[in-house]
Design brief:
This protein is α+β, with helices and mostly antiparallel strands. The protein is 30% helix and 26% strand. The chain is built from eight helices and 14 strands. α6 packs parallel to α7. The protein is globular, with a radius of gyration of 18 Å.
Length: 280
């Protein structure tokens, strides 16, 4: 089997697993049959996160018995143990746990395959909306829903230098942390969304143009979106406009990052460095 064909089979297999995990999560969500805990970093986790983690890990081990799996809710091995992995699955069983707890419906199941420090497969499933976003590097990005399958493309501005941009913005994080980093001379509108991955999907399908995440996230928050947005014509970069890397650092956290659409826009002029409180 050719490598491309094998990747396609893994993509479809992982997509099915994401949807099955989404069904499990929605059953717990609708019945409110879950407990909420606090992790060591004071972020929330629920028994639904843990149940989805267990399900996804088990099914991925059946799909690809020889590939390691790194999950937000699993044990995080040291860099010395991880650094020689040529490829591995990187998952977030529920991206948007706060949205899950708040019962907004804006949470997703996220699965990515990372090869040589770069994601090559990306799956984001939105259970409440029954929408599946998936991409294979070099083969395009697609959305599947009740209307069938559609290829994704970022929105192209008629005048990239002057047209208003649409900023995806968090429902839970303080808006000022992002808005103070926007060029006041550039007209913009905002569209609220929940999890980071849902904001990425909005950009990939042309419903928003950009997003800035300020605050702690993990590599599992961006890997699948990296492929999906990239195949739709956009990109994910650090706030300093550098590529995001995977499995190269001891810690698995991301820097503050940007998800960007139309490549013709001078995004360095849209986003400005915030000099007073760089980590605010």
């Amino acid at each position: 089997m050719s490598p491309a064909k094998q990747l396609q089979e893994w993509l479809e297999g992982a997509a099915a697993i994401a949807q099955q995990a989404g069904d499990l999560i929605m059953e717990l969500y609708e019945e409110q049959a879950y407990a909420t805990f606090e992790k060591s970093d004071n972020s929330p986790v629920t028994s639904a996160d843990l149940a989805a983690h267990k399900y996804i890990v088990g099914k991925l081990q059946e799909l690809t018995p020889d590939l390691p799996i790194l999950s937000e809710e699993g044990a995080h091995l040291s860099l010395e143990e991880r650094r020689h992995w040529p490829r591995y699955w990187l998952i977030d069983p529920i991206d948007g746990t706060q949205e899950f707890i708040a019962r907004s419906g804006d949470f997703t199941v996220v699965i990515a395959l990372v090869e040589q420090h770069q994601p090559t497969l990306g799956i984001i499933y939105w259970p409440a909306g029954d929408k599946l976003y998936l991409a294979q590097k070099g083969a395009g990005a697609f959305r599947r829903d009740i209307n069938g399958e559609q290829q994704l493309a970022v929105r192209k501005l008629q005048d990239p230098a002057n047209d208003p941009v649409i900023l995806a913005i968090s429902r839970r994080q303080p808006r000022e942390r992002v808005l103070q980093r926007m060029n006041p001379d550039r007209e913009l509108s905002t569209v609220p969304a929940g999890s980071c991955s849902l904001k990425a999907c909005l950009i990939a399908e042309g419903q928003a143009d950009c997003f800035l995440r300020v605050g702690p996230t993990g590599e599992w928050d961006t890997a699948a979106a990296d492929v999906i947005v990239g195949e739709a014509g956009g990109c994910i970069l650090s706030e300093h406009f550098q590529p995001i890397t995977y499995n190269e650092e001891m810690e698995l956290g991301n820097p503050n990052f940007l998800i960007l659409g139309d490549a013709e826009v001078s995004w360095r002029d849209v986003f400005i460095r915030h000099r007073t409180h760089p980590e605010a």
